[in-house]
Structure formats: C-alpha cells, structure tokens
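User: I'm putting together notes for a lab meeting next week and I want to include a structural view of one of the chains we've been expressing. I don't have a solved structure, so I'd like a prediction I can at least talk through. The sequence is below, exactly as it appears in our construct file.
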Amino acid sequence: MKNIHIALFFWLVCCFFCCQPQEDDLKITEYVDPFALSLDNSPEAVVPFGAIRLGAETENNHIRALALYHSTENQGQSSHAIRFLPITTQPTGNVLPQTYAESNFASYSKEQAKPGYYAVCLDNGINIEAAVTEHCGIMYYQYPKDSQHALLINLLPFSPQDSVQTRIWKINQRTLEGYCKKLRNGNEQQLYFVIEFSQDCKALIGEQTFETLDDDREFIAKGCCIWLDFGKRTDQILVKASLSTVNTEGAAANLEKELSHWSFDKVERDAKQAWKRELQKVKVEGKDKNLLKTFYTDLYQAYMTPAIFSDVNGNYKGPDGEIHSAHKYIHYAVSPPWNEWEDISPLLSITQKKRVRDMLKSSQNDLRFFVPADTLPQPNDTIAHKLLTAMGIAPIEPYGNRYQLVVPSFDRIVIHLGQEKRFVITVEKESEADVYIEEVWLNKRKLDRLWITDDEIMLGGKLNFVLTNE
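Assistant: Thanks for the context. Below is the predicted structure for the 470-residue chain, given as structure tokens.
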C-alpha cells in the first residue's frame, strides 16, 4: 500500500509539472494585441506566414465589409480583394440600391480580435466572425430573426485607375468559382477564387442592374457585384473561400486540403494553435505585463512575412508570369530577393531555420527573373531588431553573424532552436537598480567580449548576464 501511495504521489507531481507549461503556453497568444498593428485600428485574421488575410474594409472610421485578399497585396486597397457584406435588403426589381450607402455600418468599438480570428457586430444587427487557414478563410454570419438573409460580394475595382475584368461561374446552388484580372501600368495580375456556402442560395449578378445567375453558367464583366439570397430557413450562414494566384484548380485544391469541413470552431482553434507554436519558440519571462504584451505583439507581426505564395499542390505564378511548381518545398513571396543567408533577418535565421531554407530557395528561384522591389510587402527589419535587442542580442549592422550583447528587457528568455535544442538567456541582479552589465557567461565560461556569434547561439546552451548598479 505504501508503494502505491508513493507512486500516486509522483504521478500527481508529474501531472502538475506537465500541465503547468501548457497553461503558460496558452497565455502567449493572450499577450498579442492585433489592434496595435493597424493604423486604422482594424485588425485582420491571419496565420503565421499565411497566404491570405481576412479583415475589415473601412470608410470614414466605420466598417463597410470584410475584405479577403492575398498577403502580397496591400490591406483592403487591392482590386483583387473580395469584399463580403452581409445585408438585410433586397433588390427592387432588378436594381440593387446603393447598399454601401444605405447599410448601417459597424463602429470600431464593436470589434473583437485575437490571433487568427476577427469578429464584429454590424449596426444592422448582423454578427460576423472570421477565421483563416494558410490559404482559406471561413466566415460565420448570424442574422437577426425575421430579416432578409442576404450577402453582397463586391468584385468592383477599388479605384478608377484599376482596369479589372471578372469572370464568374456558378457551379451549383452553393458554389462559385472565378477570377479577377487587374491591369495596371501594363502589369497584369490575376486572382482566382472558389467560394462555398453552407446552404442553397439564389444569385443575382451585375453592376448597376442585376440578372439571375443560374447554375452552370458564367458571367463576364469589367467588374460586378453578386447578391445572394439565402431565404429565411436559418439565420446562421457559413461561407468558405480560397484564393490562388495560379488558377481555380489551385484554389479548389487549397479548399479541399485545408477546409473540407464546415467547423468554424476548428479553424479558429487550429489558427490559435498555429500561433502558439510559433510564438512559444521564444519564451520570455518578466514582471512587466505591458512589456510582455509589446514583445509578443511585435513577434506576431514579425511572423506574418514573407508570406506563402504557392498553393497546396506546389504551383505558383513566377515573376515571369508563368506557372512554376515548388518541388519538396514551400514557395514564399520574398521581396527584395535574398542572395545569401546574410540577407535574411537575424530573427528568422535563429527561430525559423526550416522555413528560411524554403524562403531562400524561393528567392533563388525568383532571382532568375526581374522582380520590382516594391511589388511585395517586405519583412520589417526594425521590428526584428527591436525584438532581438529586447532579448539582449542586438544585431550588428550590416547583418552578419555577430550580435552585440545588451541588457535584456526580461529576466529569462528561452529560444527554441528545433531538434530539442534551446538557447537560454538569464539575468542575474540583486535589485531593480542593477541596469549595467558587469559580467557575461556563456555555458559557464566568462566572456571577455560584449558580442556573440550566430554559430554560438545555434549550438544552444546558456547565456547569463550579471548586472550591477555601477
């Protein structure tokens, strides 16, 4: 009996220590503030290095629609953005009112956001939730009872300077396929999409006047809107959408691979887990919650780019406009291109070794062609520098393999290097007045220098700062 009690005691102790890190891990995503990243104070749903984003399109400090767009485009400003607006109105005859002008839009105070998730309640009483995978988005619409359950999909040009052609196929009563073709300054770009609905709907399509879009029929126009009537059978509508820069087959493959189900909760949960896995590659400990919040929000932003550019089947549109295939790697949109490891952000080279190999291969393949420097969003090296400095290892310009040792902002930092290797940074001080470096120890060896190399970090081990007040 005594042995049983002893075994039970050790089992309980093991359970306690095994569960504790999991609870701490879950808190990491709670430190992220997506609202802090947007100049217009409207966040978006995205997963780490995800190919697509889903967020609010705004006008005059109000939300007018959800915009689904590729991560290589500018937020909401792209003619390629597919805009979804749930409405409670219907066309008068074949003419749709100026829905944007007559709808009750939402204010920013009614938004909610967390990593991989976005939600808002419109002033017309419609609740919207959105979550994403790497290539797909899912939207949940809760309509007021006894209202018209409708959805307006806007494919019109964002600005008069954009020349756009749209082509829509209604596959059946629940599926749309098509593309938007944009021509600006002689540069043609296409975005393909597949959109599925959780229930049958009636579709009207047009720009000023509308006509019925029957099953197995296509519609071609410079730009158009699609008005979808779901009737009143249920006040809960789900919409799934996938984007591809290659073709509709790629968009369909993305949807089949990543979002073949209709569980919104699963997509939201998987997005949160994806962010947790990436964010916990760097674990920092400290008493200042605001500092923790700032650090993980910056890390969250740093892990948005470079974005995945290939479909799940490996196909991607190269800078030459032709379709290429990424064999045994994921193709990323890297701009400006990287020639060697020296061009890579030190933060990514330390924490994203596997992804960086694919990013470097992507860049080398794209270097065969001309890539304008301003075509793609670029990683923010300022944020990477800020994060590493907070960890006590500030990059030395130009980016090489050396890091200046500075006082860390946190008491303990754990960098997970992969393959069970860790690099642990600790701070030893007697009081908060100790803000100067007295000694630095690397793996129990006192350093006679205030810098460390990339190779020393990647070997793993422990770096200990001893601080003093003088």
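A couple of points you could mention at the meeting. Confidence is low (pLDDT under 50) at residues 4-23, 99-103, 373-378. The longest helix spans residues 2-30.

User: Perfect, that's what I needed.
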